[in-house]
Amino acid sequence: MLPTDRPALFLAPMQDVTDLPFMRVMAQLGGADVYVTEYFRVHIHSNLDPYILRSITENPTGRPIIAQLIGQDASELVRTVNLLKRHPIAGIDLNLGCPAPVVCRKEAGGGLLRNPDKINELLGALREACDDLHFTVKTRVGYESPDEFDGILSVFKKHAIDLLTVHGRTVRERYQTPVHPEKIRQAVEELPCPVIANGNVVNLPTGLAYLEETQAAGLMIGRGAIRHPWIFPQLHAAFLDEPVPVVTGKMVKAYIELLYEETAREIPDFIEAKHIQKMKKYLIYISQGHVPEFEHTIRRVKTREEFFGTCTEFLDHDQPAPDLPPENSKLFCGFSQFLPPEG
């Protein structure tokens, strides 16, 4: 499932964002080596979400895709694994990292990190259910404190996990702090399976530095890939010592146009205003690092004409696109830990 000649690149799952049309766009722009679905919510009598399932049955990437599950009922998770086995998946991933309060209150996602005994139960049940299928886990380094990571790792060591992805923050830290690369390095050194580093990769230098500090087997990138999907081909080129592609404003504009068309294809009863709101979810990330007026204006557009007029106004040029987002934004914080000191 992973490349053998270089670090692996994963697209991080982001609910209601990294869906089937987004995967189609990523595939056209170079894309990742491995994709992970948005999470399937698992509870008593839950069914496979048909829209998320299409990311598997219609996988447009030509690359392996892993089905992610979120829940805390072992028997229901096992039942869901058996349903997913009927489809062309590369593996099953258990979400132990989602920091959303509504998820954590249900003792799911990152909320499970408060209950190591429950995690132990779920990992045992899922490892057995997966059988020969890859079984992977995505976690954070703790719920309240990174000091909890020793205990979390001790649970993981009891089970034959095939791959572990570590978002280098705690649940409480959400996305607003630097990451703790030393904790990912600890997992690399103590676990027999490949470890993937996640969190705060926003451009080529931050990705390379994160790998250097952690010695991880690869990177999982979410927010940074939405803002700058060329991060995957740029990293790939750097790994193979090939020329790194330069991205211009016009390329960003073309990316937005492609994203607009691909997402519009999935709306059975197309309503322009509703689709514009959907696109704003992406543009909030994409606009970071450009002149502030771009984000300010795009947040207020209401029609297709206004939307594309704004994109043309700010992006229709051949100058290099901004390499970095602002570090003081609510979306991208703390990544300067991976940048060389100024001067």
What is the H/E order? Answer: EHEEHEHEHHEHEHEHEHHHHHH
For this structure, the CATH topology of the largest domain is TIM Barrel
How helical, in percent, are the residues? 40-55%
Report Rg: 20 Å
Mean pLDDT: 95
Question: What would you say the CATH architecture of the largest domain is?
Answer: Alpha-Beta Barrel
Assign an overall shape: globular
Which structural class do you get from the secondary structure elements? alpha/beta
Number of discrete helical segments: 14
Number of self-contained structural domains: 2
Spatial strand sequence of the major β-sheet = 1-2-4-5-6-7-8-9
Strand portion, in percent? 5-15%
Low-confidence stretches: none
The largest pleated sheet is described as:
8 strands, parallel, barrel
CA(first)-CA(last) distance: 41 Å
What's the total number of strands? 9
CATH class of the largest domain: Alpha Beta
Say which CATH homologous superfamily of the largest domain is assigned. Aldolase class I
Detailed description of the structure:
There is one protein chain. The chain is of the alpha/beta class and 343 residues long. It has 2 domains: 8-239, TIM Barrel; 249-315. It is built from 14 helices and 9 strands. It has helices spanning 20-28, 50-57, 74-84, 101-104, 116-130, 149-156, 181-190, 204-214, 223-227, 231-239, 249-264, 272-286, 292-298, 304-315, and strands at residues 8-11, 34-36, 40-41, 65-70, 91-96, 134-140, 163-167, 195-198, 218-221. It has an 8-stranded parallel β-barrel with strand order 1-2-4-5-6-7-8-9, surrounded by 5 helices. Strand 3 (40-41), helix 2 (50-57) and strand 4 (65-70) form a beta-alpha-beta unit. Helix 1 (20-28) runs antiparallel to helix 11. The chain is globular. The chain starts with 7 loop residues before the first strand and ends in a 28-residue tail after the last helix. The mean pLDDT is 95.
